[in-house]
Amino acid sequence: MTTDRVKTGIEGFDEMLGGGYIPQTANLIEGAPGTGKTTLGMQFIYNGIVKFNEPGLIITFEEFPHQYYHNAASFGWDFNQLEKEGLLKIIMTSPEVTRQDLENVGGIIETQVAQMGVRRVLVDSMTHFERLTQNATDLRQIEYSFINALKREGLTCLLTKESPALLGDAPEGDSEIAFVVDSYAILRYVEIDSAISKAALILKMRGSDHAKEIRQYEIDPQAGFQLKSKFEGQEGILSGNPSRSKVDAFDKAFIE
Amino acid sequence: MTTDRVKTGIEGFDEMLGGGYIPQTANLIEGAPGTGKTTLGMQFIYNGIVKFNEPGLIITFEEFPHQYYHNAASFGWDFNQLEKEGLLKIIMTSPEVTRQDLENVGGIIETQVAQMGVRRVLVDSMTHFERLTQNATDLRQIEYSFINALKREGLTCLLTKESPALLGDAPEGDSEIAFVVDSYAILRYVEIDSAISKAALILKMRGSDHAKEIRQYEIDPQAGFQLKSKFEGQEGILSGNPSRSKVDAFDKAFIE
Amino acid sequence: MTTDRVKTGIEGFDEMLGGGYIPQTANLIEGAPGTGKTTLGMQFIYNGIVKFNEPGLIITFEEFPHQYYHNAASFGWDFNQLEKEGLLKIIMTSPEVTRQDLENVGGIIETQVAQMGVRRVLVDSMTHFERLTQNATDLRQIEYSFINALKREGLTCLLTKESPALLGDAPEGDSEIAFVVDSYAILRYVEIDSAISKAALILKMRGSDHAKEIRQYEIDPQAGFQLKSKFEGQEGILSGNPSRSKVDAFDKAFIE
Amino acid sequence: MTTDRVKTGIEGFDEMLGGGYIPQTANLIEGAPGTGKTTLGMQFIYNGIVKFNEPGLIITFEEFPHQYYHNAASFGWDFNQLEKEGLLKIIMTSPEVTRQDLENVGGIIETQVAQMGVRRVLVDSMTHFERLTQNATDLRQIEYSFINALKREGLTCLLTKESPALLGDAPEGDSEIAFVVDSYAILRYVEIDSAISKAALILKMRGSDHAKEIRQYEIDPQAGFQLKSKFEGQEGILSGNPSRSKVDAFDKAFIE
Amino acid sequence: MTTDRVKTGIEGFDEMLGGGYIPQTANLIEGAPGTGKTTLGMQFIYNGIVKFNEPGLIITFEEFPHQYYHNAASFGWDFNQLEKEGLLKIIMTSPEVTRQDLENVGGIIETQVAQMGVRRVLVDSMTHFERLTQNATDLRQIEYSFINALKREGLTCLLTKESPALLGDAPEGDSEIAFVVDSYAILRYVEIDSAISKAALILKMRGSDHAKEIRQYEIDPQAGFQLKSKFEGQEGILSGNPSRSKVDAFDKAFIE
Amino acid sequence: MTTDRVKTGIEGFDEMLGGGYIPQTANLIEGAPGTGKTTLGMQFIYNGIVKFNEPGLIITFEEFPHQYYHNAASFGWDFNQLEKEGLLKIIMTSPEVTRQDLENVGGIIETQVAQMGVRRVLVDSMTHFERLTQNATDLRQIEYSFINALKREGLTCLLTKESPALLGDAPEGDSEIAFVVDSYAILRYVEIDSAISKAALILKMRGSDHAKEIRQYEIDPQAGFQLKSKFEGQEGILSGNPSRSKVDAFDKAFIE
Questions:
Q1: pTM of the predicted protein model
Q2: Residue D231: its chain E contacts at CB < 8 A?
Q3: Which of A71, A109, B95, F204 has its CA 20 to 30 A from that of B116?
Q4: Which of chain A's residues have a Cβ under 8 Å away from the Cβ of B166?
Q5: More confident residue, D197 or E172
């Protein structure tokens, strides 16, 4: 069953996803600044090209392509070269232009997909769609249409979303996009033992089983997104300020 | 007494409902993204058809019918075939159109109910009614009229509602629909032992006894909504960040 | 002193009220959906008629009379028959109409009271007055005038009020009606031992002593509102997420 | 030094105030519905008349005089008779009218003070001034002028203020009146041992020492406001949801 | 180094400030009603005159000068006499007038400083500047200009600021003035052992070391602001609802 | 690899940054009033000049240059002299002017950089950009353009940002600037043992590993920003109100 999954190529993360993403789905990654959303997205695209022979597209609404070259290069990924080889395309555009492009026959994205054989797309980030409207219902319809247009092109989509809260959840569900995507992963800062760890969790995955555990991860300056072991003996990890669970604390104090 | 209940056919869940839903009632299921509201609703419709010989209707305000075919198929439920056999009808529409349709004699829904003998309806989701008005009082009257119109057609209704908060309650009661429905169930994410569990609870059920306990459940990729055992030794489950209760913690640490 | 009280006829609840409500007072019952506000109100009216020979009036701003017949019937209370016998009157109206009616000599309510000898009234619910104005001061004056008009008719009033928060208090005091009523009771959901209990508390009662303890209760599908014993060994019940008190936890763990 | 204090005549409360209120000061009592603000105020006026020979004035912005007669009578205080004897005057008015009255020479209040020899005034409640303006700065100036006008008449003022939160503090300081009064007492609900207690605290008292401890009190249906002992072994009383302090809990569990 | 400090003359407080305030700086004191901001300010001015021979100025935006005479007299400080001797000047004005006065050559404040040799100024309170504008940026510029104008006159400034929260921090940083002053002290209510203590803390002091510890203090009816010992064995003092720290609690329970 | 880093010259802090800042990056320092943002920034500029021979620029939107001279002098840094030597330039300007200046060829900043060979810039503070627009999306684009313009000049940027909350996180992510910078450090007040400590943490650093631990620091009146050891045995440091972790507390109480 996992043979037809779209693998991220990130050890452990594909296992959390039950083998990888399901083809032609929209997959959301949400996190605070510095949690590695874009790194995870770049790695999804890079591994797609070099490990699974699937050309990729990056749609960016803020950062210039050279910033991606620069950031990718620090992990040893030569995005500039891949683009020259016709395996990667980075498009800097705006949500407005992208929407219209996808509605037209023969738009840029459709053309790239046809010519390059693009299979994966990173949209960095969905947060920029919020500039299009103040109305939550309109925003949801725009995002839903956009996502479906990408899926109709045959693409497996990784969508990043910025979380406004540093620790724990955002104070209110500021976007309803989590309801319309096919999978939803959250990246969180967690304070443990007077240091900051990072936690990854798959909250939702339509049509597939997935891991329920909260896993530690690091952004390795060489290797990128690296999953570590599950957290142990902590309560309230997703609040960002966990405390050692009582049973574990007693064990540590009296038995060990 | 339970003989005339409208059973969901989900083991354990009917028992929580005191035997099943009461005929011609409106029953609300509320949950965050990925908690399985739609899966529970589809299962209510599917089991109605194949186990209890009750044709069903799905009214959707966002997802296309093929998305339901796709999602249902992953659980082994052939919605496409059921629709061909005249046992299921999926109507993609808008809250505006549906309201008017129900006010007219001979509207689409009334016609379907008459022709197909529909007994159950899934409305996915009530959250889309919020686009009709910014006024909470108007919204409540619209929702109340809509629900009563469905009940007058003789339908037992399962209504989904999206919760904007990932963990715990929504920061404010963003809709008053819970006051006008006949039963109200909530689905919640719960962090326990560094992993995410799911919790189901029946909060309200007019004219019937119902289970008061908070039960674990899973969305099984083959079988759908599956109830598990009651939570044990936890305090604050509905907050999403429970802690092991002190008595239980002492027992675990010193006695076990 | 308790001989002239207006008894609810609910075992234990009258004791909490120091013998029952004081005649010609306005008494508020506030609770979240499913806590049994309306059931308590119907029982106050029903017991008034059948146990204390006091005809009753129900003023509803949303539900149809047949919904009350239906709900009451599930408890074995034949409201339809009582209405035929001239002992009960259910008036479905609007806050606007009711205000005007009470200001006129010979209005409907005044007439009903005179003809039927009505002594008790249930207003279900005061929350609907909030549609009349966005201004908190105006709302308060409207509610105060309405309550006084009912009291001038010689009625003992039970007023329901919806609480927008599922667990614990509403985030802000969304209505000032609690300041103008004569008594104020709150109904709350409480999570204990991984299940949901219900808690009742009399917070305020002008001109009378009343119970200060927080009591458990259930909505029995046959008997209606049923008071149970006081909570024991819990801290923070009214927050909805209590924890076992430390002393009690130590006792349970080490001594029992 | 305490000889020239304006005593409330409430045992224990005068001691908390360092002997009583200071003459010609404005003294604020804030509390949630049912905490007994008005009872305390009536008792201040009643005791002034019958124990200390100081005629009193009650300015009310909502309740009718007969409501005060009624409420006072339940404590055995015959306000109607005192008014006939010229020792008490209850004026039902509006904040607007009162402001203007105090600005005029020979206004009603000034006249009453001169004719009756009024020494004490209860203003019930300052919350109604909030209807005069939406602007916090304007409100403060209005309240400050009003208070000073009363003080210039030689009156010792007890001002009630409604707290919008049932338990704990109001979510924001909704009025700045606490900064301009001479003393500030708060009345709070406190949940202890699964019951509701009431707590009184003097937070501020210009020009005098005062008790810092948080005292329990009850509203006795015969005697009115009655101070009880200090709370013991509790942390977080003013939050409304205190917990037994750890030291006290250990003592109770292991030593007692 | 401490020789050229502007001493408050309050025992312990000058030590917390590293010897006293630095000359020609703006120093903020923030606190809830009753925490003694104005008392501390009056003491700073009074001690300046009688202990350090530095004439003082009090700028008030609300209270009349006689209120300061009255309040000061209760501590035994004869402000009326000091004003007659030309050592103190109390100016009751408005933020608008004060701003203009400071911009003009030969304004009242400049004149007073020149004639009296004023060295210290108390501004009571900065909160009244908030009436000048709803715009946070404009407010900040106004406050910054005002503060600099006072400093250019050679004055060492003590500025009071009202905190809208009774316990703990204000829900949001309602003013940015803390960023523009040279030192920032906060006064807080703290509930400990079922009583209310007061806590003082120096949070910021440009160009100087200062105490980091949280100290208890009292407003003594004779002596004014009196520093007491550091808090001990408490966690979360600044939240207003501290709890005894676990280590301390264990020690108390088992060892003492 | 660390040889080409832009060192702050602050012992320990460069190690936290994996050797120092990366050249031509924008680096954010966020903190409450008094946490030492500006001191850290001045030290970055001062050390750049005297230790690493890199001329520096300070762009200030509020404080006058002489205030920087004064503040720097208290640490023994002679900014006035450095400016005379052409190694430092302090520009007091507005966000509006700075934006335009950077868009023009031959603007002041460009000219200074060319003439002085400026390598480092301190922008104090980015918070003042918020006055330019109420629209979060516009603000983000303005800030992003500004930052990129500075980076195009070849500068390594240290940007300060004011945090509106005294303890813990700001209630909402009031600015999205953290998403667009290359590194993000936060400075926090932390209450421990009844005193206020300060905590520094690097949350994000693009293209580099960095320390994850939360370190104590002090603002030394002679030496400026001084890193201390890691916190130990505390939970919830970033909340500002940590508690001793249970394991640590047990150890302290029973074993030590």
A1: 0.93
A2: 194
A3: B95
A4: 169, 173, 186, 203, 238
A5: D197
